[in-house]
Amino acid sequence: MTYLTGLALGISAGGKLHQLLGGARFSLVHTLPGRRRYQHDDLLNNQELAAEWEQHLIRVKGINTVKVNPVTGSILVEYSCQEEYIDLVMNYLNELHKRPGPRDDYGKLGVNIRSLCRRMNRNVFRNTGYTLDLRTVLAIIMFVCGTAKIWKLGQRPAGPQMVWWAYSLLKGRC
Prior knowledge:
By secondary structure, the protein is α+β, with helices and mostly antiparallel strands. The protein has two domains: 80 residues, Alpha-Beta Plaits (2-Layer Sandwich), CATH 3.30.70; 50 residues, no CATH class. 59% of the residues lie in helices and 14% in strands. It is built from six helices and four strands; from the N terminus they run H-E-E-H-E-E-H-H-H-H. The chain has a four-stranded antiparallel sheet. Strand 3 and strand 4 form a beta hairpin. Helix 5 packs antiparallel against helix 6. The longest helix has 23 residues.
Protein backbone atom coordinates (compact mmCIF):
# COMPACT_ATOMS: atom_id res chain seq x y z
CA MET A 1 0.00 0.00 0.00
CA THR A 2 1.35 3.38 -0.93
CA TYR A 3 1.43 6.37 1.36
CA LEU A 4 -1.38 8.09 -0.56
CA THR A 5 -3.61 5.01 -0.47
CA GLY A 6 -3.09 4.65 3.27
CA LEU A 7 -3.84 8.34 3.77
CA ALA A 8 -7.05 8.11 1.73
CA LEU A 9 -8.12 5.00 3.61
CA GLY A 10 -7.41 6.69 6.95
CA ILE A 11 -9.40 9.78 6.01
CA SER A 12 -12.35 7.66 4.87
CA ALA A 13 -12.30 5.54 8.03
CA GLY A 14 -11.95 8.64 10.19
CA GLY A 15 -14.96 10.25 8.53
CA LYS A 16 -17.09 7.17 9.11
CA LEU A 17 -15.91 6.90 12.71
CA HIS A 18 -16.71 10.56 13.34
CA GLN A 19 -20.15 10.09 11.79
CA LEU A 20 -20.77 7.01 13.95
CA LEU A 21 -19.50 8.48 17.21
CA GLY A 22 -20.14 12.20 16.90
CA GLY A 23 -22.10 12.74 13.74
CA ALA A 24 -25.45 14.41 13.55
CA ARG A 25 -27.31 14.90 16.79
CA PHE A 26 -30.55 16.40 17.88
CA SER A 27 -30.29 20.09 18.57
CA LEU A 28 -32.94 21.76 20.67
CA VAL A 29 -34.09 24.75 18.62
CA HIS A 30 -36.97 26.05 20.71
CA THR A 31 -38.66 25.16 23.98
CA LEU A 32 -41.80 26.12 25.86
CA PRO A 33 -43.36 24.29 28.80
CA GLY A 34 -44.80 21.09 27.31
CA ARG A 35 -43.48 21.79 23.81
CA ARG A 36 -40.09 21.37 22.13
CA ARG A 37 -38.74 21.72 18.61
CA TYR A 38 -35.65 19.73 17.64
CA GLN A 39 -33.55 19.75 14.48
CA HIS A 40 -31.59 16.82 13.02
CA ASP A 41 -29.53 16.94 9.82
CA ASP A 42 -30.36 13.35 8.83
CA LEU A 43 -34.07 14.24 8.62
CA LEU A 44 -33.54 16.70 5.77
CA ASN A 45 -35.34 15.37 2.68
CA ASN A 46 -35.66 11.92 4.27
CA GLN A 47 -39.37 11.05 4.28
CA GLU A 48 -38.81 7.44 5.40
CA LEU A 49 -36.79 8.41 8.47
CA ALA A 50 -39.31 11.14 9.32
CA ALA A 51 -42.21 8.67 9.21
CA GLU A 52 -40.25 6.09 11.24
CA TRP A 53 -39.34 8.57 13.99
CA GLU A 54 -42.87 9.95 14.11
CA GLN A 55 -44.26 6.43 14.61
CA HIS A 56 -41.70 5.70 17.36
CA LEU A 57 -42.20 8.94 19.26
CA ILE A 58 -46.01 8.98 19.20
CA ARG A 59 -46.04 5.59 20.99
CA VAL A 60 -44.03 6.94 23.94
CA LYS A 61 -46.13 7.45 27.05
CA GLY A 62 -46.25 11.14 27.97
CA ILE A 63 -45.80 12.41 24.41
CA ASN A 64 -49.09 13.83 23.13
CA THR A 65 -48.32 14.90 19.55
CA VAL A 66 -45.36 14.62 17.21
CA LYS A 67 -44.92 16.49 13.92
CA VAL A 68 -41.85 15.66 11.86
CA ASN A 69 -41.02 17.89 8.89
CA PRO A 70 -38.48 16.35 6.48
CA VAL A 71 -38.30 19.59 4.47
CA THR A 72 -36.82 21.54 7.39
CA GLY A 73 -35.43 18.55 9.30
CA SER A 74 -37.36 19.46 12.44
CA ILE A 75 -39.41 17.57 15.01
CA LEU A 76 -42.11 19.26 17.07
CA VAL A 77 -42.92 17.35 20.26
CA GLU A 78 -45.79 18.24 22.59
CA TYR A 79 -45.70 16.37 25.88
CA SER A 80 -47.22 16.14 29.33
CA CYS A 81 -44.35 14.45 31.18
CA GLN A 82 -41.20 15.70 32.89
CA GLU A 83 -38.47 17.49 30.91
CA GLU A 84 -35.84 14.91 31.93
CA TYR A 85 -37.95 12.12 30.45
CA ILE A 86 -38.08 13.88 27.07
CA ASP A 87 -34.29 14.35 27.19
CA LEU A 88 -33.86 10.60 27.79
CA VAL A 89 -36.24 9.72 24.94
CA MET A 90 -34.48 11.99 22.45
CA ASN A 91 -31.02 10.78 23.49
CA TYR A 92 -32.20 7.18 23.12
CA LEU A 93 -33.63 7.90 19.66
CA ASN A 94 -30.33 9.50 18.64
CA GLU A 95 -28.31 6.50 19.89
CA LEU A 96 -30.69 4.12 18.14
CA HIS A 97 -30.29 6.07 14.92
CA LYS A 98 -26.47 5.77 15.06
CA ARG A 99 -26.55 1.96 15.13
CA PRO A 100 -26.46 0.14 11.82
CA GLY A 101 -29.76 -1.52 10.99
CA PRO A 102 -30.25 -5.11 9.84
CA ARG A 103 -30.68 -3.87 6.26
CA ASP A 104 -27.30 -2.09 6.25
CA ASP A 105 -24.32 -4.00 4.85
CA TYR A 106 -22.61 -3.94 8.25
CA GLY A 107 -25.77 -5.16 9.96
CA LYS A 108 -26.31 -7.90 7.37
CA LEU A 109 -22.78 -9.24 7.87
CA GLY A 110 -23.25 -9.47 11.63
CA VAL A 111 -26.65 -11.14 11.25
CA ASN A 112 -25.22 -13.63 8.74
CA ILE A 113 -22.27 -14.54 10.98
CA ARG A 114 -24.52 -15.01 14.02
CA SER A 115 -27.02 -17.17 12.11
CA LEU A 116 -24.19 -19.31 10.68
CA CYS A 117 -22.77 -19.87 14.18
CA ARG A 118 -26.23 -20.73 15.53
CA ARG A 119 -26.77 -23.29 12.73
CA MET A 120 -23.34 -24.83 13.34
CA ASN A 121 -24.05 -24.97 17.08
CA ARG A 122 -27.39 -26.75 16.51
CA ASN A 123 -25.75 -29.27 14.15
CA VAL A 124 -22.93 -30.03 16.60
CA PHE A 125 -25.46 -30.35 19.43
CA ARG A 126 -27.64 -32.80 17.44
CA ASN A 127 -24.70 -34.82 16.06
CA THR A 128 -23.19 -35.36 19.53
CA GLY A 129 -26.39 -36.74 20.99
CA TYR A 130 -27.27 -33.44 22.68
CA THR A 131 -24.19 -33.58 24.94
CA LEU A 132 -21.76 -31.07 23.38
CA ASP A 133 -22.29 -27.69 21.79
CA LEU A 134 -19.98 -25.71 19.50
CA ARG A 135 -18.50 -23.69 22.37
CA THR A 136 -17.55 -26.84 24.28
CA VAL A 137 -16.08 -28.55 21.20
CA LEU A 138 -13.93 -25.49 20.43
CA ALA A 139 -12.83 -25.33 24.07
CA ILE A 140 -11.80 -29.00 24.04
CA ILE A 141 -9.86 -28.56 20.78
CA MET A 142 -8.05 -25.48 22.12
CA PHE A 143 -7.31 -27.21 25.42
CA VAL A 144 -5.87 -30.32 23.72
CA CYS A 145 -3.82 -28.32 21.19
CA GLY A 146 -2.57 -25.92 23.85
CA THR A 147 -1.61 -28.71 26.24
CA ALA A 148 0.18 -30.60 23.43
CA LYS A 149 2.18 -27.50 22.49
CA ILE A 150 3.15 -26.93 26.11
CA TRP A 151 4.33 -30.53 26.69
CA LYS A 152 5.75 -31.56 23.32
CA LEU A 153 7.16 -28.33 21.93
CA GLY A 154 7.71 -26.38 25.12
CA GLN A 155 6.04 -23.38 23.56
CA ARG A 156 5.19 -20.44 25.70
CA PRO A 157 2.97 -18.37 25.70
CA ALA A 158 1.04 -19.83 22.70
CA GLY A 159 0.17 -23.08 24.48
CA PRO A 160 -0.91 -21.49 27.76
CA GLN A 161 -2.87 -18.92 25.80
CA MET A 162 -4.91 -21.69 24.14
CA VAL A 163 -5.54 -23.27 27.54
CA TRP A 164 -6.74 -19.89 28.83
CA TRP A 165 -9.06 -19.51 25.84
CA ALA A 166 -10.47 -22.96 26.52
CA TYR A 167 -11.04 -22.06 30.17
CA SER A 168 -12.69 -18.76 29.16
CA LEU A 169 -15.05 -20.59 26.80
CA LEU A 170 -16.03 -23.11 29.46
CA LYS A 171 -16.35 -20.59 32.28
CA GLY A 172 -19.85 -20.52 33.66
CA ARG A 173 -20.94 -23.75 31.93
CA CYS A 174 -20.88 -26.06 35.00
